[in-house]
Amino acid sequence: QKEVEQNSGPLSVPEGAIASLNCTYSDRVSQSFFWYRQYSGKSPELIMSIYSNGDKEDGRFTAQLNKASQYVSLLIRDSQPSDSATYLCAVKDGGTSYGKLTFGQGTILTVHP
Amino acid sequence: KAGVTQTPRYLIKTRGQQVTLSCSPISGHRSVSWYQQTPGQGLQFLFEYFSETQRNKGNFPGRFSGRQFSNSRSEMNVSTLELGDSALYLCASRQSGLRTDTQYFGPGTRLTVL
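ok -> structure tokens follow
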């Protein structure tokens, strides 16, 4: 059973701070990793994808991947109240070209003014 | 490009009934996956279709089935509904290819079983 674990929440940060979200996964051959954001009552929205070890930056978001440690993280700089949502880590099954994603349970982030 | 569309957006059914949900992927995307989201279990993979063939299946009973048409549109069917089938059903489309694993979700169908 492939597993994806996210740091337990909820996470509360003040506006302007850095929010750090973490995720570990069990499938050693996974090559594709994603962070989705889900607002209450809405569907998941892709924020970042990362495939190689290291950092990937997109605006205020930075994803970090360490395949040796089987660890993925998402940093949100200059957090805004509009960032308040549930963040889902997703890992695509390794060893296949098909797209099954395994999701973590999600971390609820609240950014307070 | 239009996004993933799902119909209907909301459904109320009673136990024992069956239901069919529909998904139209992003134009050009040939892979469609279905997921179930519940507060207790989170997001769980149901199945994936590519070129009208089921390529992968999650750990759900046979009451859950699906199909894909030649235009990549997909339907999923749940027969003999149970209370526990109440969930948000999400469809995701993907453009297959090297380094194009990204899945984009539709708005979902909220199914309530009474």
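The longest strand of chain A covers residues 85-92.
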